[in-house]
Amino acid sequence: MKTIVVGGGPVGMYCAIALARSGHQVDLVDRDPGPPAAGPWARRGVMQFNLPHFFRPTVRQSMAAAMPDVWRAILAAGGVEIRPDGLPERVATDLTTLQCRRSTFERAIWTTAAREPRLRLRTGHADHIVTGAGRLTGVVVDGRSVDADLVIVAAGRAGRIGDGRPPVEGGSCGFGYIARMYRARPGVEPPASWLPMGSMYRGYIAIVFPQDDRTHSVLVVRPSADDALASLRDEARFDAVAPLIPQLARWVDATRFEPITGVMAGAGLTNTYRGQLDERGRAVAAGVFFAGDAVCTTNPMAGRGVTLGLRQADALLSLLSDGGGDLAEVAERFDSWCIGNIRPWYEDHVYWDATLLRRLGGADIDVEARLPSDVICAAAEADPAIRVAAGAFNAMQAPPSVLDNVQDLARAVLRSGWRPSYCDGPARDELAAALAGPTRQLVPAAAEGA
């Protein structure tokens, strides 16, 4: 079968390699020509390419099981497997994560894909899908039609190819990001943690992401409407104010860690969902499928994107293998699978983010309303009976509904007066005041050498 995959991100590449290895002749179309033989890779059209990433255990499990050679290439490129301490061997193995920059991760996959015999990488823009009698016939790439029997659109949330589905549900998640990447100087130990290290302060969140090659990224998560904290995008102000935040102070110390990027902003972050089918509940065209961010996006703060994308890819590849020749029926089955297995994560994040924004603004938790997932998981600190469900949810080994059974337990914890605590450190208004002042006056002596 002649197949075109639109989009060379992790999901598109994963699908393209898998289909090529199952006998398809695959063209992968992406605007970017791929990584250079040496030097940095200025990935086109991927805003989040240099922003912090967290690769969950399910990413390692999918890649290592389906494409062990690709997984070995990621590790050979510098990706680091990190196991949690203090757990039984089997549990620790299941929860092993990957510390890796997105650029390292994608470079390894692209390099492997370039050697795949039935896979051709095409640099270009997929303009639109060509159909006849309700069935796919090809894709127009840079003005020229390319024949295809199967198309997988993994071009991201902004892709327009394959329009015909109902409008996207959702929108802005309400948050913006400000980040910078560092490398440990010689003789300095980089951060070592199984998970990203995050702290919630009054009005914002700060997170440190350990990565590969002695690098790490620091991140400030702010409400997107907070224009005052948006001025952290200015490099001088970031360098002056970031040391005031206890979670970041040690990891932005320029005497120990060298900045290797400028200050980067992540904007336009969304929680969205869009199914496979048109408004009549039918496939857009028999043979056309959508995957990855073209189906679902969630606030990147929880690191769900690649996990949800690879789950979609695995499900779609399985359905294509088992579905026979009726590709329109396969699209309906895949849409149903996504509704049951992907949409709940979108809905979870919509509610989580809405309630978190209110809390960051100073509001209390509404104990009588449905509790958001982050509050339930935090309540496991006070009630060990919540921990099993919270652990399965946090590892994405069980769907958000696993928390339904512990809602009442968490509510009882909250009624006792317990609340998730804010970390000691400057509140949002204190940071905003510091950002409004001259940068030379911002860094206190106590922050030096932190």
Please identify the structural class as seen in this structure.
alpha+beta
Rg to the nearest angstrom? 23 Å
Number of helices: 15
Shape: globular
Distance between the termini: 59 Å
CATH superfamily of the largest domain: FAD/NAD(P)-binding domain
Biggest β-sheet, characterized? 6 strands, antiparallel
Write a brief caption for the model.
The protein has 450 residues and is an alpha+beta fold. 33% of the residues lie in helices and 21% in strands. It is built from 15 helices and 19 strands.
Task: Walk me through the structure.
This protein has three domains: 2-169 and 270-345, FAD/NAD(P)-binding domain, CATH 3.50.50; 175-268 and 427-447, 2-Layer Sandwich (Alpha-Beta Plaits); 365-418, no CATH class. It has 15 helices and 19 strands. The relative contact order is 0.14. It is α+β, with helices and mostly antiparallel strands. Strands 11, 12, 13, 14, 15 and 16 form a six-stranded antiparallel β-sheet that branches. Helix 9 (305-322) packs antiparallel against helix 10 (327-341) and helix 12 crosses helix 14. The chain has helices at 10-21, 57-66, 68-76, 89-94, 102-113, 227-230, 235-241, 246-249, 305-322, 327-341, 343-360, 373-379, 387-394, 407-415, 428-436; strands spanning 2-6, 25-30, 80-82, 97-99, 119-123, 126-132, 135-141, 144-147, 150-153, 169-172, 175-184, 197-201, 204-210, 215-223, 257-259, 264-266, 270-273, 288-290, 296-297. The longest helix is centred in the C-terminal third of the chain and has 18 residues, at 305-322.
